[in-house]
Specification:
The chain has one domain. The longest helix is centred in the last third of the chain and has 20 residues. With 80 residues, it is mainly alpha-helical. It contains 4 helices and no strands. The chain is elongated.
Length: 80
Amino acid sequence: FQYLKRYDQGYNLDTFCYEAHSVEGSPAECLQQFLLHCGVTDPSWSELRNFTWFLNVQLRDCEASVFCNPDFVQDTLQGF
């Protein structure tokens, strides 16, 4: 949710890193973001769950990768 919210607001996501157990927004805002970004019209709860699970895994791997670390990469992959 935090990544999607910042993406919609135009923030640079290259410098954002999720902090465990941090809470932002309401459950209604979270659901609205998932509905906007899941890519399925009128998704089922199962489709939303799969979307959030997949996004979470991808973002966790991205944060753990040295190749996505702006301090390591510097500006060579800006916007990638």
